[in-house]
Amino acid sequence: MKKIIVAILLLILFTPAEFKAMASTEEDKTYDVTMRQDLLSLMMAYPEYIVNIEGTADGRVYVVMKSGRKLLYDDKRKKGSAEKLSNPDLQDMLEQTYPLIPVRSVLEENFDPGRCRVYELLSEVYGSSQKAIESKLTSLNLGYLNCQFNSSNKAANSLKAVMQELIPLARGNQRIGSCVYPSSGTYNYRLIAGTNQLSPHSYGIAIDLAVNKKDYWRWSTKADGDKRLSSYPSEIVEIFEKNNFIWGGKWAHFDIMHFEYRPEIILKARYFMNKQDVEKPWFQGVPLEDAFIKNSIDKINQVLK
After folding, report:
1. pLDDT number for residue 1
2. Which of these, 120, 260, 155, lies nearest to 200 by C-alpha position?
3. Count of structural domains, the chain
4. Do 4 and 137 have their domain in common?
């Protein structure tokens, strides 16, 4: 009721043109805040690989990689969900905020946070060819067998931290153990089924745990996905998310056995999940005592004045 009253008062006090200008200004502020938060999330996620932010006279903003390559933040094109998945920019990739809360049923249609991947970014960090990727792989113990995972950007170290916490739980709790073992694998250089895009397994940054026939949207119905999610151990998900992995169980196109190392998605969710008050500092909530983060904020503010 209060929102309706405010809307009526605005229509009375302002002409349609003035009202439209006010709404546009508010949208611009929200977009600017979101862009800054996205850029900071990327810089925190890839500190050894993203070295700067650059802007152009026509308003385009780029992330500058250590190699000198520049990745466009927003191509300003209107895209449907299918095109965002097949040809995303950085803004598309970070548009949907990953929920750091328990999920017990399949999420709404086309809500797939982290399922959009900018392959230019992944190639810069984890390797641009099969040979380059394989040169970065390291062996990790999953408790009963070894697997290969990418050593770049702390990916392998993060999976190691997951397993150090998860293995004792799986051994002592049959409900958890049955979802963890036997693992369906990590590194596998292949395309995603039904697409011409590389799987994140191709980069050695994803792990599939024990397979259940209800785990994958192509194999299963939404009702069966709901049943699987309703009983999936939250302890597994929390351990992975704590170490910067996203879970395919939080996608409308559910992939419940799938965990993927995506620090930019988790960091944005961790610090910027709630709608930001545009009148407050856009970086509110991040640890400003961290010199790298403080320096990254300064770089962003210098470019986006």
Report:
1. 56
2. 260
3. 2
4. no
Neighbour-count burial of 38, counting CB atoms closer than 10 A to its CB (0-12 exposed, 13-18 middle, 19+ buried)? buried
Give the domain extent around 297.
1-76+282-305
For residue 82, is it within any domain? no
Phi, psi of 106 (to 5 degrees): -65, 135
User: Which token pair is 158?
Assistant: 């993060």
Percent of the chain past pLDDT 90, that is, above it, reads 85
Quick one: 237 and 268 in the same domain?
yes
Radius of gyration of the chain (CA): 21
Average pLDDT, the chain: 92
Contact 160, 261 (CB under 8 A): no
Two tokens, residue 80: 């449907």
> Per-residue pLDDT averaged across 154-158, rounded?
98
Which residue from 206, 208, 51, 207 is spatially nearest to 124, judged by alpha carbons? 51
Asked if residue 4 has pLDDT above 70, the reply is no
By the 8 A CB rule, do 203 and 133 touch? Answer: yes
Residue 155 lies in a domain: yes
Same domain, yes or no: 248 and 301? no
One domain for residues 290 and 269: no
Q: What is the dihedral of CA 278, 49, 242, 297, to 10 degrees?
A: -30
